[in-house]
Amino acid sequence: MLERDVVSWNAMLVAYIHSGDLRRALAIFDAMRERNVTSWNFIVTACAQHDDLLQACQIFDRMPLRNVVSWNAIVAAYAESGELPRAKFLFDLSPETNVFSWTILITCYAENQELDWARTMFLRMPCRNIVSWNAILTAYASIGDMDQATRCLDAMPERDLVSWNATISGFVQIGRLLDAKGLFERFPATDIVSWNAILTAEAEARDMVAAKELFEDLPKADIVSWHILIAAFAQNGDLDSSRTLFSRMCKWTIFSWNVMVAAYGQNGQIEQSEITFRKMDGRDLVSWNAMVAAYAQNGYFDHAERFFDLMPRRDVVSWNSMVSGLINLGEIDVARERFFDQMPQKNVVSWNMMISAYSGDDRNDEALALFRAMDVSPDRVTFAVALEICANLSDVEQGKEIHRRITEGGRGFESHPQIETALLNMYAQCGDISLTSSIFEELSRRDLAAWNAMIHGYARIGELGSMLELFFRMLLEGIGPNFASLVSIVSACSHGGMFDEGFAFFRGILKDFGVNLVIDHYICMIDLLGRSGQIDRAQELVLDMPYEADGVAWRALLSSCIVQGDEERAQRAAGQISAVDPRHPTTYILLANVYATAFV
Known about the structure:
Oligomer: single chain
Radius of gyration: 30 Å
Strand content: under 5%
């Protein structure tokens, strides 16, 4: 070929772009004697795909002629880089748009959980295609708003595999496994993605018999199917089955080896983790992270740090593993100073871990201060933890401010069951039963956690009639109680003087509800017996219950002894508290009551 035309040059340009060689693609572009709008569009898109937004923008600005594809390319470049305001500005500047232009923005808003913007753009679209519908459906599913997602699925003029798979995966993600299976059975056609979603559902339900049967029935398992089942067996402590499956695989990828390194680590077999790691022909960042996490999760922090220091490169997951390892060892301040504060980049998981660590250590003021200092957008977990902190502090004003941020954030978190329950708990703990009840009654779907939050709310403020009425209403709706429901009820009956009702519920826990008794149930009964004047029976329960009495149990008995004026038993209980829980602040208050007043 003596003289290349623009089509030939474009073909060479595309070849280098597809091979991932941006440097040579740019050299070809610069060498072209003649370019058409397609040439320019190719190179703008290539720069964007290689995260070179500056160069993509500079080339776009030099374009002598632009068409709708050019504008779509630059809008996509900014949107996919997370610069959504700039992407929207360029979209509005575009002299011409098509359905793809709109779908770019909807998809990126959805991926960034800017749900209000995604919905607004979707509703403004002059015409929609299946890709647009799938983008908004996936947005709802990704934040767990499955009521909206299913309404969207039902409204679609046509559906494809993406539509069905996104909805099934959304149900799996929030634990509505029966709904996921029911939708799968309605599926007019399935592919391996659908089957893998249901396989994940069985694994999430820890029904490994059903998961294995489903795996064996798969029309054609892909490597993801194998990895799902290997990981599921490991998470259920069945490493033998994980190993057997791994050995049955026709071909191992680096990801397959990584799954096994993590599997051994999750089950405390650190030596096997490292042996597997050393066997690998090639290792990637995930391999190193799995090894660091294996040591960190199992308390071998020195070994984790050794691997961390040896890593050829690190990412935010590497740093998060170190933070998590120290938090698990109770070294919260060391985790903060040595790793969290030194991280070159933090993601929302980093912040969530540190905030949760402070909250779990009853350092709620520090947790709230860290929440306010976040420099990334909070996610659903962040908001749920923040609401729990407000509940612990009984800070209803801060709780309302967080509620407002959730509602106005446009990400649809307010309709997720985790946030709904966190809001109920927060308002209930803060004593605002009116708002708690209003939120509860507006829920489209009430799970056991929501009922428990409402029951606890009534119990906390002593509205025992409303609490019992709600409990029986829950039973009528086919929802059985768990240990938390019954702890709230027995405790409320104890504090409210309804001793007979408390006894009845305690007796019914095993007989009627099939709930296994935990130490919290016994502590409630110790308190109830003591308050009703039956100190002998309360002491017998402390000594005879199938759990070793802790500080909480002895403090319950001591409080009752003080109220009933039983000095001898109070002295014995005080001695036990000094032995098992000397550092708890309440201990000194109760001991002071015993020794200072001496029941005078």
